[in-house]
Each structure stands twice: as C-alpha cells, then as structure tokens.
Specification:
- The chain is an all-alpha fold.
- About 75% of the residues lie in helices and about 0% in strands.
- The chain has one domain.
- It has 13 helices and no strands.
- The longest helix has about 35 residues.
- It is globular and about 55 Å long.
- The C terminus is likely disordered.
- InterPro entries: EamA_dom, EmrE-like, WAT1-related.
C-alpha cells in the first residue's frame, strides 16, 4: 500500500509541477515580471513551511548559528531561490514549458560532476559505474543540445498563448536567437541547481532540518530578490496591469502551497525509498507540460528528449548499483533528489 501511495503521489506531483510551469508561462506571456513572481512565491513558500518547521523540527535547531551555517544558508538562498528561479523563468519565457521541464533532467549527471570536483563523490575511472555515469552525463548533454537546436521556435508556440502575449514583430533570426538564449538560461539554471543541491546536501549533514532550511532560505531569497528588483528597476512591481489580484492569489496558492506540498511529499519519499525513486519520475513532468501546453514538438527535439532521458536513467542505474559499495558517510547519497 505504501509503495502504491508513493508511485501514485509522485505521478500526481509531477503533473502538478507541470501545470505550474505552464501557468507561469501563461503569466509571463501576460507581461509579469519574473522577479515579482519569485518574490511572491518565495514569501508564500516560507510562510507555508514555517508552521511545519516549528511543530516538527524545533528540537533540531542549534542553540547558536555558526558563521559557516549562516554562509551556507545565504548561498542556498541566493542560488536556489533568486538565481535559479530567475534563470528558469527567463528560460520559460523564451522557450516552452516542455523544454523547461526537460532541462532539469540533466541535474543528476551534473550533480555527479560537481560532487566529484569537490571530492564528495568517489571517482574511479576503473569502475564501470563511474564510466556509466560519465557516459550518461554526456548523453544527457547531447540530448539537451539536440533538443535546443532542433526545435523550431515558431512551431513550438502555443496558439492560445501567442494570442494573449504582447506582439513582437521580430524577424525569424531574432526569434531563433531568443530561443537559443532561453535554452542557455535553462542550462545555466540546471548548473546552478546542481551546485546548490550539493551545498544543500552538505548543509543537511550538520543541520538535519529540511523544512526549517526551506522556510529560512525562501525568506532570505525573497529579500535578495526584492533588493535586486529595487536595484535594477527602482521599485517592486508585478510588471503589467493585467496581473490582477486573482493571478497573484493563484501564484501564492500554487507556488507556496500546492508546489510546496509536492516538495514535502517528494522529501518524504526520499526519506522512505531514497532519491532515485523521485528522479525516475522526472520525465513525466516533461510529457505533461507538452500535453498541457498543446505545443508541436519536432522529431529532432523528440530525439533530443529521448537521449536526455536515456542518459538520465543510465546515471540513475549506475548510482543505484554503486550505492551498495559506498561508505555510510558519503554526502553525495541524497544528491539526486
């Protein structure tokens, strides 16, 4: 029964996350400011997690916050909340929800590379599992490049969103340039995701309070985002008069509540069965985004997605077979979440 609940819940969670990506794409098409979306969702997420952190993790809080822990929390907030989400939203705005949902499937391979660079992951060229992870990472990168370069920006546009978005009389070359720029934003976002995930795993080793960490870093990220918007634009603004109270309420409920609930459920699944189970369901979000968005996906882009998913599962297969040979203190064990 527990396994059935996990599988069904993870499928539902990925569908919800896909729906949120499509909704964010719709809001950006209306002219919303990406920084404003991040700010609203981060504050809502922090307030959502805070009661659970107080009830479940208060005894785990340290009596004194060290400088190292404070620096780690600040970097996680800056990278995970502000920088990662800004790059993701810029990428979503210039591409499609399906492409944006597919790119994070690169993260397991990139996390392996980052962890190996910081010597948090055992790297043995003679080990077949290490070679498999390297091969899977390369296949993922090739798939991501194929998916980016072989998809037509014009054919991938949703007619519904094209009708409501601002008219942009750009040439075809300019449209393709925006597409490549958007894919570059998404790739950079995944790199940032990999970096702060490694840092997050290392921080949780000394501060085992994930709900508290989420609440604190979300609020810190909201502050960083507000400072950035004030510095760049001189004011905090949603970006368009079409972003009314109803849309803001949906951002609060979905970004802070529903998506936050999905994160909590995925964290529970990781604690019960490990991170690989959660990672396996990543491609479901991509498929759901494509179906919900109603986009036309080219054959070349589909081939790129297939390569990315194959590379993802090669990395996950290698990691699952290697975990039995790792010492208990390996910090990289929970990084594929």
């Amino acid at each position: 029964m527990e396994a059935a609940v996990m599988v069904g819940g993870l499928l539902v969670a990925q569908c919800i996350l896909a729906g949120y990506v499509v909704f964010v794409h719709h809001v950006l098409a209306l002219g919303a400011n990406p920084l404003a979306i991040i700010l609203i969702a981060a504050v809502a997420s922090s307030l959502f997690f805070l009661p659970f952190a107080l009830a479940l993790e208060r005894k785990k809080w340290p009596s004194k916050i060290s400088r190292t822990l404070l620096a780690q929390l600040l970097l996680i907030a800056l990278g995970g909340t502000t920088l990662f989400q800004e790059l993701m939203l810029l990428g979503i705005k210039k591409t499609t929800p399906a492409i944006a949902s597919a790119m994070p499937n690169l993260s397991p391979g990139l996390i392996f590379v980052v962890a190996a660079c910081f010597r948090l992951e055992k790297f043995d060229k003679a080990c077949k599992y290490t070679r498999a992870k390297i091969l899977g990472t390369l296949v993922c990168l090739v798939g991501a490049m194929a998916m980016s370069f072989l998809q037509s920006p014009i054919s991938s546009s949703s007619p519904q969103l094209t009708a409501i978005s601002e008219p942009e009389p750009a040439a075809a070359d300019g449209t393709y340039y925006d597409w490549i720029l958007g894919c570059s934003y998404l790739l950079l976002a995944v790199v940032v995701l990999s970096l702060y995930t490694v840092l997050q795993a290392a921080t949780l080793a000394s501060f085992p309070a994930p709900l508290t960490m989420c609440s604190v870093t979300s609020m810190m990220g909201a502050v960083f985002t507000a400072i950035l918007q004030l510095t760049v634009e001189g004011k905090i603004d949603v970006g368009s008069p079409r972003i009314d109270l109803a849309i803001i309420s949906v951002i609060v409920l979905m970004g802070g509540g529903v998506v936050g609930g999905c994160v909590v459920f995925q964290t529970w699944c990781i604690g019960k069965r490990g991170p690989l189970l959660v990672s396996i369901f990543g491609p479901v979000q991509t498929v759901c985004s494509a179906l919900l968005f109603g986009q036309i996906v080219s054959f070349g882009s589909l081939a790129g997605m297939a390569l990315m998913f194959c590379g993802l599962y090669v990395v996950l297969w290698a990691k699952s077979n290697e975990e039995g040979r790792l010492d208990g203190g390996d910090v990289e064990k929970p990084l594929l979440s």
